[in-house]
Design a protein that fits this description.
By secondary structure, the protein is α/β, with parallel strands linked by helices. Among the domains are: 28-276, Type I PLP-dependent aspartate aminotransferase-like (Major domain) (Aspartate Aminotransferase, domain 2, 3-Layer(aba) Sandwich); 392-463, Alpha-Beta Complex (Molybdopterin biosynthesis moea protein, domain 2). 36% of the residues lie in helices and 15% in strands. The strands form 5 sheets. An 8-stranded mixed β-sheet has the order 2-10-9-8-7-3-4-16, sandwiched between helices. Strands 11-12-15-14 form a 4-stranded antiparallel β-sheet. Strands 1-13 form a two-stranded parallel sheet. Helix 3 packs parallel to helix 9, helix 4 (81-93) packs across helix 5 and helix 10 packs parallel to helix 12. It is globular, with a radius of gyration of 22 Å. Bound molecules: pyridoxal-5'-phosphate.
């Protein structure tokens, strides 16, 4: 089927992102706009419209309105996803040669920013859930240990990045983590790509956005965790630790010179949906529905894992010895399309649209899958062999630009990678340019290759 046919067909249960569910949950204003004469809305930065970096015009007014409503000093809409705004944030936070402390489960976009910005990624290990193969969140005690170790590298640390909630919806006590980072007089950037809707604060038992705990910069992917069109995102800033001039020049450096007015309108409407009482009412009913679905699935013995995001359902496939990647293929055959297939789990994103009749169908398909594979023993995953803090052996940009050769993974011991090894999704690098491949890393990568056969190659490119 060609692209156009694929884009117009909709015969599946969409449990993947974007969260608007093939348009079902798009805000009314965007739906109305899209129903007008096709293309009428496709405009450049005309005088009255402006753009994210232009101080006058409709977009400037809209950004001011959103910042005000969200209680932050500034906000910038983005048309290249959380990716573009995370990268701009990093360029604003650190100069070439400075280091940025970030967790091992960082999204690849931040490593790319280190590469082209000449920054040193000081990567710290995070707790690991061996029953499912996920990175977990950590607490202040863990972070204190990280700071202690990071000091030994004697690098000029400019900032810390946190990822919260994680792709699977685990959430940390952000108040204490942000407090700890600020006690070192460092700014913190929070990748809240999966947590935009937390700014609604619709229920006290849900995690709060890092903005409410004083994070200096927060990036939201508005298509992942709000009803925005793909590529819509927003960067929020507050406090005086990061100079807005540096943020703007960094956005300018990375942003297209023709930002789409449709995507910018989508940024505005996605944020309005999160803060308006009508939008919040809809979100609340989606969450209530998601919780009923979760209860139904658990009552029907579906192995679900706990997380802090009611709109994400994690099926624990490795509990029955099954790969989430294989189980995903079976669900796709039955026209249920999940979001994140991993070796031990399959995560479904309910998003902002309704899935009222999903429960029984889900139970039936899972039971068929169990019968077809035959129940096996639970499997467990080995912890990744990461030091508590590590720094690439060579600068990322140097390794990336070096002459290279392609070698078999098992022959790569002692060599330096020029590439990122990174299954997508989730887009979390297992190896970054400049890192040395010691025996433990090679063994672990070979093991990972067996778990992700279509995503990790037998070969790795190393400096020649
Ligand atoms: C944790 C995290 N941060 C950032 C991103 C990038 O988001 P976007 O697709 O909006 O660029 C992703 C995408 O998967 C992500 O999972």
């Amino acid at each position: 089927m060609g692209l156009f046919n694929l884009l117009s067909a909709n015969r599946s249960e969409n449990l993947f992102l974007p969260a608007h569910g093939r348009g079902n949950a798009l805000p009314k204003k965007i739906k109305t706009l899209l129903k007008l004469r096709p293309g009428i809305w496709d405009l450049p930065e005309l005088f009255e419209i402006g753009g994210p970096l232009i101080s006058e015009g409709a977009i400037a007014d809209s950004q001011k309105f959103s910042a005000n409503e969200l209680g932050v000093d500034r906000c910038w809409y983005g048309v290249n996803g959380a990716t573009g705004l995370l990268q701009s944030s990093l360029l604003a936070l650190a100069r070439p040669g400075q280091a940025v402390l970030m967790p091992r489960n960082i999204h690849k976009s931040c490593i790319q920013a280190c590469l082209f910005g000449g920054l040193i990624p000081l990567l710290f290990d995070v707790p690991y859930l061996t029953d499912r193969g996920h990175a977990n969140v950590f607490d202040k005690k863990w972070l204190k240990r990280v700071f202690k170790k990071a000091k030994e590298f004697e690098e000029d640390i400019a900032a810390v990045v946190l990822v919260n909630p994680t792709y699977q919806g685990y959430s940390a006590d952000m108040e204490s983590l942000i407090g700890e980072i600020h006690s070192h007089s460092l700014p913190v950037l929070v990748d809240e790509a999966h947590g935009a809707y937390l700014i609604s604060q619709i229920r006290p038992d849900l995690p709060k956005s890092a903005i409410s705990f004083g994070a200096d910069l927060v990036v939201h992917s508005l298509h992942k965790s709000a009803p925005g069109l793909v590529q819509s995102a927003v960067l929020l800033s507050q406090g005086d630790k990061v100079d807005p001039f540096k943020i703007e020049r960094s956005i300018e450096f990375l942003q297209t010179s023709s930002p789409s007015s449709l995507l910018l309108a989508s940024c505005e409407s996605a944020i309005k949906e999160l803060i308006s009482s009508k939008g919040q009412k809809k979100l609340k009913s989606r969450i209530d529905e998601a919780e009923l679905l979760r209860d139904f699935l658990i009552n029907n013995e579906i192995p679900l894992l706990k997380n802090s995001d009611p709109l994400k359902i994690i099926l624990h496939t490795s509990k029955y010895g099954l790969s989430g990647i294989e189980v995903d293929k079976k669900f796709i055959e039955k026209r249920i399309i999940g979001e994140l297939a991993e070796p031990g789990t399959l995560t479904f994103c309910l998003g902002f649209s309704s899935h009222k009749r999903l429960g029984k169908r889900f139970v039936r398909i899972w039971n068929e899958i169990l019968t077809s594979f035959g129940q096996q023993k639970s499997c467990f995953f080995k912890r990744p062999p990461f030091d508590i803090v590590s720094k690439p052996h060579k600068p990322c940009s140097f390794a990336w630009g070096s002459n290279f050769e392609k070698v078999n993974l098992q022959d790569a011991i002692g060599r330096i990678s020029v590439e990122m090894v990174c299954p997508y999704p989730p887009g979390i690098p297992l190896l970054i340019p400049g890192e040395i491949l010691d025996e433990a890393r090679v063994d672990w990568l070979i093991e990972q290759k067996n778990f992700w056969p279509e995503q990790i190659s037998d070969f790795v490119r190393v400096i020649s």
